[in-house]
Design goal:
This protein is globular. The chain has a five-stranded antiparallel beta sheet. It has a four-stranded antiparallel beta sheet with strand order 1-33-32-31, with no helix packed on it. A four-stranded antiparallel beta sheet has the order 2-3-4-5. Helix content is 13%, strand content 35%. It is mostly beta strands.
Amino acid sequence: MNRRLAAACGVPASLFVLFAASAQAADWNQWRGPNRDGAVVDSPPLIESLPEEGLKPAWITEPLSPRGGNGGWACPVVSDGRVYVCLQLREPRPGVTLPPEKYPALAREDREKLAPETLAEYEKSRQAEQRERRDQKTKVADVIHCFDLATGRLIWTDERESVFTFYRPSSSPAVVDGRLFALGSDRVARCLDAKSGSVVWETPLFEEYHEAEIASSFVVADGVAVILAGRLFGLDARSGKVLWRGDEQSTSGTYSSPVVWKADGKSYVIANCGGAETACFDLRTGAEVWREKAGASKSTPLIAGDRLITYASSRKHGVGCYRLAAGKPELLWNFQGVSDAGASPVVAEGLAFAYGDKRLACVDLETGKARWQTDLDISAARYTSLVAADGKVFLAWDGLIAFAADGDEFEPLFHARIDKEGTLGTEEQFRKRLNLAAIEQEPDGQQKAEQIWRREIGNQGPLECSTPALADGFLLMRLGSSRLACYDLRAKE
């Protein structure tokens, strides 16, 4: 595999100066940002509309996964003027011809002839053979890229051979105190020097093979790195030593990312795990403190002051709001208007925003009453989360939607689509540029116009299921074309 990725260059000197003043002013150093809640506290004023010519990216890379596939759905993070993104890359091994299978899939009638114990042993052997055949045919690598925030220049790449997973993983890195924490596809916890990319330590979390992909991302606090990788793990951030392992059943899970809650001078970890339950653990020991049946499984818990916000995959539980306390939390309200299998909510302007299945809801944080709800004209989206800054909320799906956070009704500021060059523009702007109104008047013009739209705009949007990073007014977004783009959303004087 090529260990060097050609990043887009040719950035004007004036743009570099524009970045240099603010590149280190604010970070988005982990999944859901510096406070793990999807919100930026101190943001510069951001744009409320797109320029007439559209908004071009400050920079955009070449494809991160040049051999096909999206490389997984990990989100970019920003720390100390650098951008980091994790990928799983695959490529065929040349010249490999495999012999016939020793354990082929059995037809139903053949399966019924076998005793249950014999069938189970056969399936175990068949799965092991399939893993071995995949390894022989396909080279799988976990890759971490580090880019310069100012220019998009590639600074370093770390690549290590790993294992095949049915879905490519989505675990995002975390950068804390100059170290990058990431999880390999083979469930090896890794720590790298964020500046140089050199490996500090690697710790296998399991001895046996696990094929399931991981979407959970590390949270690091008080010298402990915690992740939900089949079960909860707490590792010493300096050495990689496993400090504690959660119970295999009660802390099971692979999607939700844990968060840290501090109370009475102690630090706790809160995670959705163990079958749609939200539980709290001592950060240092992993001892369970309390557990709630909140119905949330794949989303990330959100802490806003003394409130805990959970988001379930069913309307029965919907959005839940609890008052946190040293003992068991108190349920304050439950809003059943929305649900989602993996998106996480955001709080801004004293309001909670949740998105799921094309529906967007704004809920008063104090009362749990809906301020407004709306259905969005986009394809059904899951596993992408809202981000907020400067009194605005952003959703990246079928483009980038921005709306005001403090309105009494849904007030869209813009719905940007994305062209091949990565330019953000409204549908009207792109229709005018592509001359679609005139083309639609031609014989078979409607079909021709639709083909042009799909080619130029329709397949160029954000990478599905990946959430952007927002650092000091700069939006870092992975695109479906397997590129990473940076946009300057700051309002111009």
